[in-house]
Design brief:
DUF3043; membrane; mainly alpha; transmembrane helix; transmembrane; 2 domains; 0% strand; 183 residues
Length: 183
């Protein structure tokens, strides 16, 4: 049996010499209640209202088209050009949703011919929207290549086409040019 060195003795578990304190005593010694909220209701309400005001200001700046408030998807002079190009013209796609609403109402008419005509109208508008999107994509890429040489054309056509399929009032950021306006 070997004798333990003093260093080994200090590492061995020793009794505390006193009983484990009750939870109530330990919490009162810390002077912090784990159940107490970190913030008062008034502080939370102030933080919530300040965050809401900040979000509203950020959204207003985004809708205005403020470059600092735009997400990465919408930033840059090329994307601004594409937005202005799309906003300066009318497209069939922006009328797709109202036409679908009309088709839905027509389909409720008990006359079979009216329902078939409504569905045919819906498919015709969908096809025209896709064809318009293809031509719009080609025009956007051609214009961007001539005005911004060296810029990547990847995704610009789809960006423009998706914007052209939204109703003008629903677009975000809001249209910066009027229909038919030169920019």
């Amino acid at each position: 049996m070997s004798k333990e060195s003093p260093a080994e003795k200090s590492q061995s578990p020793q009794k505390k010499g006193r009983p484990t304190p009750k939870r109530k005593d330990a919490e009162s010694a810390r002077k912090v209640s784990p159940l107490a909220p970190a913030h008062t209701k008034e502080e939370k309400a102030r933080q919530k209202s300040a965050a809401r005001v900040a979000r509203m200001a950020q959204r207003a700046a985004y809708l205005r088209g403020d470059e600092s408030a735009l997400p990465l998807r919408d930033k840059g002079p090329v994307k601004k050009f594409v937005r202005n190009y799309v906003d300066s013209r009318r497209s069939i796609g922006e009328y797709f949703l109202p036409i679908i609403a009309i088709v839905l109402i027509i389909s409720l008419i008990p006359v079979a011919v009216a329902a078939v005509m409504g569905v045919a109208l819906m498919y015709a508008v969908l096809f025209a929207s896709v064809v318009d999107g293809i031509f719009l994509t080609k025009r956007i890429k051609r214009e961007v290549a001539s005005r911004f040489p060296g810029e990547s054309l990847k995704g610009l056509g789809m960006y423009g086409w998706l914007r052209s399929t939204q109703m003008r009032r629903m677009r975000a950021p809001k249209p910066g040019v009027a229909v038919g306006e030169k920019f």
